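[#protein-structures] MJ: dropping Ribosome maturation factor RimM here for a structure pass
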Amino acid sequence: MGEQAAKELLTIGKFTACYGLKGWLKVHSYTDPEENFLDYGGWLVQRRGKLEPIEIDAGKRHGKGLVVHIKGVDDRTAAEAYEKLEVAVPADSLPELEEGDFYWRQLEGLEVWCRVEGEAVERVLLGTVDYLIETGANDVLVVKASEHSIDERERLIPYLPGDVVTHVDIEAARIEVDWFIDD
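AK: finished. structure tokens for Ribosome maturation factor RimM:
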């Protein structure tokens, strides 16, 4: 457990209720699309302060959500012990993304810099990415003011790579945007 606890874990869903009599559980998946929940391995639940590995041996779409079966959990009574538990996986089990694609968690905490043109071109710090919002049309960066930011404003900046977002450098912990600064 010590080695597993040292790894970064990502919560990918939660068991919400039992389904049927043969040990199946309903899942509220935090992944997009929801079915990605089934593609991971190394599932863990936390119970009584300890991480417990589980093996999901079957899963399928059911109605608007997912149902899964945990290996060795073969009746409703056994499944009830998993209700309301969150499911996590090691962060290093996430699939590699293509160049220029990022997981939301990689963008959170990055500084957001804006290029300002005047007599000389300079860059000003708008703040740091607090979290992202999914709007349907495009994702939105919620940028909170930070210690050295230009002002104390919170900004909502569309996450549009190549347009508003001109450069993302995960290693330097910065995002560059083409955005206007209100007076």
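MJ: nice. The mean pLDDT is 88.
AK: one more thing. The domain at 104-177 is CATH 2.30.30.240 (SH3 type barrels.).
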